[in-house]
Amino acid sequence: MATAAAHQAARTQAAHATSDATGTAPGQAPGTAAYQTAFDTAVAAEERIEPRDWMPDAYRATLVRQIAQHAHSEIIGMQPEANWITRAPSLRRKAILMAKVQDEAGHGLYLYSAAETLGTGRDELLDKLHSGRQKYSSIFNYPTLTWADVGAIGWLVDGAAITNQVPLCRCSYGPYARAMVRICKEESFHQRQGYELLLALSRGTEAQHAMAQDAVDRWWWPSLMMFGPPDDESSHSAQSMEWKIKRHSNDELRQRFVDICVPQAESLGLTLPDPDLVWNEERGHHDFGAIDWTEFWEVLKGNGPCNEQRITQRRQAHDEGAWVREAAATHAAKHSEAKHAEAQDSGANGKATA
Ligand code: FAQ
């Protein structure tokens, strides 16, 4: 309550400053400084910034960048796993995988909607994705070579996503934080299905165990890269943490993920492909080997194994869906015309009887 009161006071001050043009720094619009104070107070007090609140332009731009990149990752991320739907080894596995891939589409929708609350439409964001002006997560530029890759994605990629995204449930921007609550619940199911799938393979025949190990060998390092560049090369972290968009640095979350995975790998009977992975008593964390950041930056530049395939397939899916978008828009226009006519009719009737 105390924090809400502080925020309210700052807002009142901002409103007052706007009306009498006080609290204005040189070069700022009247009242901007007071709005900035209200914003800073709200962020410091752990209050949520909502779509109609004033926010700095750079805060808005950072959110659009991150949320768009996140949304794009969800929909591009459908491709590697969808590759295995027709070849899932049983009806049960197929049903689970279909549900998971559909969930990813849903996550994309929540996130594009969150970006829309910042004044950036889905068409514009998709256009930027298709023309390479916006990114999606590096992880989805690797191929899914065997059925075990579906398990490795669930365990490691969804596991990394949860580690990164649970703190985003406390992001300072309300719509993004609320979208993340539901997404994280679903990601937990995804992570469990991957773990269970890998466990079945690991405890299966020798060939199945080898397939599971091979998948983990290939997905481990790219999963660590998902958390982004090391802190000293992360251009956005410091500002994003100050704004409480991000709550932890890239390296902190990466370390948390490694510490979570080590005992899970032991339970799975699989080995993480890092000879330098060792418990450090002093730090209370696992030390781990050097990440190949050259590979990460190359993937970001478009030179990963599947970059071209992923974006080509995405553009094709978008073009093939044009008729659905047109039909939906026509239906919505007819529906709104009918509603409008109905409202006019009842207005006219109301006047006639008055
Ligand atoms: N891939 O300054 P930072 C999922 C870029 S969802 C590509 O550290 P920031 C679910 C970054 O954009 C996975 N680019 O950046 C699923 C920036 O470039 P820019 C996606 C990356 O934003 C599972 C530059 O490097 N999750 O997996 C990556 O502070 C299975 C400098 O980096 C999210 O998007 C990367 N990995 O921190 C779906 C979570 N890392 O924009 C289907 C939300 C960094 O200046 C199947 N996002 N870059 O040109 C975040 O938490 C943050 O944006 C980070 C990056 C942590 C990813």
TrEMBL record:
User: Gene3D superfamilies, alphabetically?
Assistant: 1.20.1260.10
Among the GO molecular function terms of this UniProt record, one is:
phenylacetyl-CoA 1,2-epoxidase activity
Q: Where is this region: Disordered?
A: 1-32, 330-354
EC code: 1.14.13.149
NCBIfam families assigned to the protein according to its UniProt record, in alphabetical order: PA_CoA_Oxy1
CC annotations in GO: cytosol
Record flagged with keyword Zinc: no
Composition-biased stretches, type Basic and acidic residues, lie in 334-343
Gene behind the chain = paaA
Kindly state which keywords UniProt assigns to this record, in alphabetical order. Oxidoreductase
Question: Do you know which PANTHER family this protein is assigned to?
Answer: 1,2-PHENYLACETYL-COA EPOXIDASE, SUBUNIT A, PHENYLACETIC ACID DEGRADATION PROTEIN PAA
Q: Which domain of life is it from?
A: Bacteria
Task: Cite the InterPro entries for this sequence.
Answer: Aromatic_CoA_ox/epox, Ferritin-like, Ferritin-like_SF, PaaA, PaaA_PaaC
Output the GO biological process annotations, alphabetical, semicolon-separated: phenylacetate catabolic process
Q: What is this protein called?
A: 1,2-phenylacetyl-CoA epoxidase subunit A
| Enzyme category, top tier | oxidoreductase
